[in-house]
């Protein structure tokens, strides 16, 4: 699908997503929305409505003093803001058309997703007892964190009709409202609500919805312009939009020239106090102190006008400015200018307009350039070459050095709605406006820097990482930890649309570097690295399974000859061919229990030994793994039937050997896909058999995967089988202790993983059919081997 900001969308009757266009609501979903549209309060009755008829965002509640009325106002404000935003979608197609990059769900998912999270988290906290719609609460539960820009796996599932999701939202609104109106923890004079209080889940729902107001707005910005219409209640573009400018733009006239500000050496402290009286996400807590060296920083974000010079000087065409991953992304997308710039004439003329959320306007050269992290880093590299001075993105610690000390004492967004925040603090946040404003329009910090907070998010050089002392929250144990992987880059400061916690001084967020958000950047000049935090070293948990040596070892484990996997007569000879033996459990179980053999799923498939073995008896096998290197190796085997690898014998000595798939196996039955086991795509469901081999104790949130096995749209169909093998080797390096299934004491009693699994799966409607100890051996070199004994269980889903 082509980029809608470059050329009009061309409909194709064969696109699978068009099966969702039922036609019954198309006319109703055009134009301004009438009274039936609002499942909560209509905008004119909603807290946050401004005298100009536009809705803005309320501040976060103070959890020490909030009243029932103020909590209800926060809920209504976020709920109605969501529905104002979605009122922009015109016709059924806008709800069901996937984004042009195919890396996220269609908008109907995001229409239902915030409501579903309310229900699921309130149930986890014990605040409500029963589901409202179990099917919806499965398919709308988990979003997509795309692995790479070229993960083009299409979402071909049939989504519920609009009216069904609309009705569901009505039901959820009434449920949450009733909870707020009746819960005794919200009586006047209540004790402070802390993260140990079940009501924490309610405020988690508020902040989750506010996150998705912002992320949904980016996806709407990526839709064809004909699919959207500005809602009357949405904040207007900043008054600077469409101001006539020269072409080419003149520095100092059409956009302000930046100046460098000296920031002295300092010690900064990162982390939100645990007793701060507002909701916070798990990654905000903990504490890190950093001794910073002095550095220089530009006093404003990089503007569109400044970024144009990078484009005109061939910045998108010069390999030298880009990281390896950035250059691959640029080539794959054929990017020649920022995503939301719209060419206004021949490419070489470099005339552009700007796609805002709902319109295409004359380019505001004095607004911040909105780019991804790859583009921001390339610009900095270009500036380094142009100016002969090391330029780079700031670090998280340096961002703290730009802040006024008083902000951490008061957190201004916690006290003002969007309109008041702009007036009182000169900050473009919480929907004070419906767009960015000029890079010099905001009130500067005491250091002399504009837009430390608000306007657009700012890319930083750090990988997203936990602060020392941070702990996952049991209500959402996979919110942050899957992203501590060296593949997500830090963004700070919030944007014009950031609401609530996102707008606060404590917010720490992240995206993959190829992702587009309302995000820009500023430039630091320094010869030092600013105490940057990087997690993508070869020894980091995120890269363990991307290392070439690890791929070789797993090729031997999955595809090596048994006599090579364990050549010593005194060794565990029966421990070889582990992936094949695991797959055989499912093949044998399908025969013994006469279950289906149409489709099998191998989660954590590595280089595919178990997946190919499953193809001996299953008609279609999908292998998924988080490691790109593993998936690439498995895909080569699927395509070619063979792949060379290096067998390590001693030090650098060894031999290149070739793995070959048994010709008796029909490789066309097997496919591979990169995916996160903790966040599997919604369309993966109803498999006859699922294999989980040597996986659970390497996941940041094992329960996120286990919770997908049963229920409506479960991975395992009723009557189907799941084979689970694990040595329960829990390490905080991979899994936060709070997410371990066992291996610790609680209330003086040992908690064992096998007992936890048995209790959980039995409650989910599974019956244990087989259980035994299943050994495996992993060869490191000719004289060193890992001997592991996994606990094997075969379960059948009965309901």
Model description:
The protein is α+β, with helices and mostly antiparallel strands and 799 residues long. It has 3 domains: 212 residues, no CATH class; 266 residues, Alpha-Beta Complex (paralog of FGE (formylglycine-generating enzyme)); 254 residues, Vaccinia Virus protein VP39 (Rossmann fold, 3-Layer(aba) Sandwich), CATH 3.40.50.150.
Topology:
Layout: H1 68-86, H2 92-96, H3 107-124, H4 136-139, H5 162-182, H6 200-221, E1 260-263, E2 266-270, E3 288-292, E4 295-298, H7 304-312, H8 324-333, E5 341-343, E6 352-355, E7 360-362, H9 373-387, E8 391-392, H10 396-402, H11 405-410, H12 418-425, E9 457-463, E10 489-492, E11 509-511, E12 519-520, E13 524-525, H13 548-559, H14 562-565, H15 578-592, E14 599-603, H16 609-614, E15 620-625, H17 628-640, E16 642-650, E17 653-660, E18 670-674, E19 687-693, H18 702-706, E20 716-726, E21 744-746, E22 749-751, H19 753-763, E23 766-781, E24 784-797
Parallel strand pairs: 9-12, 14-15, 14-19, 15-18, 19-20
Antiparallel strand pairs: 1-4, 2-3, 4-13, 5-6, 6-7, 8-13, 9-10, 10-11, 16-17, 20-24, 21-22, 23-24
Helix pairs in contact: 1-5, 1-6, 3-5, 3-6, 8-9
Terminal CA distance = 40 Å
Strand order of the largest sheet: 18-15-14-19-20-24-23
CATH class division of the largest domain = Alpha Beta
Give me the secondary-structure category. alpha+beta
Give the mean pLDDT: 93
- Please count the helical segments: 19
For the secondary structure, the number of strands is 24
The major β-sheet equals: 7 strands, mixed
Using the alpha-carbon principal axes, give the shape. globular
| Low-pLDDT sequence parts | none
**What is the CATH third-level topology name of the largest domain?**
paralog of FGE (formylglycine-generating enzyme)
- In helices, the fraction of residues equals 25-40%
Strand content: 15-25%
Q: Could you tell me the radius of gyration in angstroms? A: 27 Å
When the domains are counted, the total is 3
Q: What CATH architecture of the largest domain would you give?
A: Alpha-Beta Complex
